[in-house]
Amino acid sequence: MKLSALIAALVVALVRPDPAEIRCHGELVAYLTAAKAVSETAFESDLMIQARGSSIGQELEFVNLDLHFSRIQRFDQAAQGLGTLDQGRGYQRVDLQISPRFDSWFDGQGFGSRVDFESQVSLDAFADLSDPTPWLLADDETLRIATLTMDYGGLELSAGDSVTLDVLGQADASGSRTTSFVLRDPGTEIASMVEPVFQRPEAHSEGAGVAAFESTITVAVVPEPAVLLPLCLGLLSALLLRRQRHH
């Protein structure tokens, strides 16, 4: 490690307390937008945040996102967590597209990449110690953190089954939730681990009836390729036969 990088690391360690040491509830609102189909077997949802009250004027410098409770709900069956799919690789079905303003915070380890923490992804303003980029929450502007895209192709789902992305997170050993944010007061340099208030704005009426930390899509009828081929051949044969009769 270069001397300059080592000095930068020591400075950060001295002025930036461990987020796990200071936790509190803050006025930071978060929510997932309503599910939007992007193909026959995939949908996307945006993770949004909005500063309110005392969190306005704070610097956002760390995000931990946990999909632990995301699930598949098959008709008349118990819900199945993403972590149980694809021999434990179900979380890899969720693609994470970081908002450009937070792109430098991402170390490239997406869902399913971290051993024992497969359901979690972290974004850190200090990922590059030589050029940290905390974001000042100057007002109540709504910010997009990332877009999550879930691919449920090949799971043999039936019409009426549902797929849910859930970012609530689980309670860790300290009792705090694993989906959380770190805010720092620029004046005091005190950092706080904040659990967001999940609340969808009234303007997002399309998400009514669904918890703000969830985004759910109900599967429509999607014929498998093995079914589509005979069907297409049958329709083609019928069309050719009809044309022959007219000639």
From TrEMBL:
Keywords: Membrane, Transmembrane, Transmembrane helix
Segments crossing the lipid bilayer: 225-241
Membrane listed as a keyword: yes
InterPro entries xrefs: Ice-binding_C
Name of the protein in its database record: PEP-CTERM protein-sorting domain-containing protein
Lineage of source species: Bacteria, Pseudomonadati, Planctomycetota, Planctomycetia, Pirellulales
